[in-house]
Write a structure and sequence with these properties.
Elements (H helix, E strand, L loop, with lengths): L2 H7 L5 E2 L3 H8 L3 E6 L8 H15 L3 E6 L20 H18 L3 E4 L1 H4 L4 H7 L6 H5 L2 H4 L8 H4 L1 H16 L1 E7 L3 H15 L4 E5 L12 E2 L2 E2 L9 H9 L3 H11 L4 H13 L5 H15 L1 H16 L7 H9 L3 E4 L5 H7 L6 H9 L3 E3 L2 E2 L17 E6 L3 E7 L1
Parallel strand pairs: 2-3, 2-5, 3-4, 5-6, 9-13
Antiparallel strand pairs: 1-6, 7-8, 10-11, 10-12, 12-13
Helix pairs in contact: 10-11, 12-15, 12-16, 13-14, 13-15, 15-16, 16-17, 18-19
Length: 408
């Protein structure tokens, strides 16, 4: 397949500004940009597909530029239902430096900061040189603005579209970036930039968007129990990332393999058949987890994630070293209990059991393990000397339910 056809097969093309994009991607070499605002100091898994598109284009001979919006981040892209909280300049600068290093380390892209060309722009020049090219009705018709009209939108957020269009014009002029790539929620901002370039220079620029990755229920992909899945392994460990991906829904795992890996079509179609015929083996999910963790963090981190997974699955917590245990328990809620409490009361206090009677049944029925060792003694006490490190004790109920107790 040629590049454009492959992107279509992978489900990575949503909107295109011109049919010429197909020939541009397949047969030319162009500079393009993709942007993100530094609202956090790490990219998350939701960004990953977008940045992989940029990597796919790079591998096909195109030149990617990552714009980290130190300027637009001071304003904030309008959210669908509320205004974004303002971030301090100091925090934005910290986030920018962290994101720049992360992107350079993982993807090797050129990185620019739009604060560099926005910081000296005064208000009168902004209105005269850029604002006059934007018709109010045109801006109100954009989806990101229209969705906020019922609850209201500030002039600050309303101006975001113009600032992003200014970015495209700047990179078009200074870096010959003729193409912008973004998520489907950025379509209005991308087309605004194309229009500004046409009106200011008389030349044509291009853009395309990709669909947002979702779960089977239509909600955004990228959070586990309300927590974002970060690409920084110090914020989301390789084990947590592995678990998030290996638990992907059967209905969506092939979609994720297409969008989040470089596996070829025959390999993915073979895995798709396995999902249909042997879903219980979760082979597609395991391949997805291996590909993403290895690409982001390396083979050693993947092996570590697999080792933790196997140890917890078999109940062999004692096989894990301190660092692996720390990674393992980061994914669990920590429950505080009094040191020296008997196990029956521990199970009730931590809500592992709903009553003392149920707790006794769990213990007598060989369903409870403390730090990897089965406990059937109803008089067993949870003490400091049993802790695996610091004040932590791991309780396992049944085959897969883990709880972390902190003794106080």
């Amino acid at each position: 397949m040629k590049l454009f056809e492959e992107l279509q097969w992978r489900g990575l093309i949503n909107d295109i500004s011109s049919p010429e994009i197909e020939d541009m991607l397949n047969n030319k070499s162009v500079s393009f940009y993709i942007g993100t605002d530094p609202t956090g100091d790490s990219l998350h898994i939701g960004h990953y597909s977008s940045f992989l598109i940029a990597k796919r284009l790079k591998d096909a001979g195109h030149h990617p530029i990552l714009l980290v919006g130190g300027g637009t981040g001071l304003i904030g892209d309008p959210k669908p239902n509320t205004e974004r909280p303002m971030i301090t300049k100091e925090q934005l600068d910290h986030n920018y430096r962290k994101l720049r290093k992360q992107v350079e380390d993982i993807f090797g892209f050129e990185v620019v900061n739009n604060y560099d060309w926005m910081k000296d722009l005064n208000f009168l020049d902004y209105l005269r040189d850029y604002g006059k090219y934007f018709n109010l009705n045109y801006m109100l018709a954009k989806e990101t603005v229209k969705s906020r009209m019922d609850i209201g939108i500030t002039y600050t957020e309303f101006s975001y579209m113009i600032l992003q269009a200014l970015d495209f014009l700047h990179l078009f002029d200074q870096k010959n970036a003729v193409l912008q790539v973004g998520g489907q929620d950025q379509w209005g901002n991308i087309t605004a930039g194309i229009e500004l370039i046409r009106k200011k220079t008389g030349k044509e620029a291009f853009g395309f968007t990709m669909p947002l990755i979702t779960k089977a229920d239509g909600t955004k992909f990228g959070k586990s129990e309300g927590k974002a899945i970060w690409l920084d392994k110090n914020q989301t460990s390789s084990y947590e990332l592995y678990q998030f991906l290996v638990n992907a829904e059967d209905e969506k795992v092939i979609d994720y393999l297409k969008k989040l890996t470089f596996l070829d079509r025959p390999t993915i179609e073979a895995l798709e058949e396995k999902v249909k015929t042997e879903p219980f083996k979760r082979e597609a999910q395991k391949v997805l987890a291996k590909e993403v963790v290895t690409y982001l963090h390396g083979e050693e981190e993947y092996d570590k994630a697999l080792h933790i997974t196997n140890a917890l699955f078999k109940g062999n917590v004692q096989d894990l070293d301190k660092n692996e245990l720390i990674d393992a328990i980061r994914g669990f809620d920590t429950i505080q209990v009094n040191e020296g409490m008997d196990l029956v009361n521990c199970l009730v206090e931590s809500k592992i059991a709903s009553s003392k009677r149920e707790a006794r049944e769990f213990i007598s029925g060989n369903s409870i393990a403390v730090n990897g060792i089965k406990v059937t003694d109803l008089e067993y006490n949870v003490n400091q000397d049993q802790c695996i490190f610091n004040n932590y004790t791991i309780i396992k109920k049944g085959k897969r339910n883990y709880y972390v107790l902190e003794l106080v």
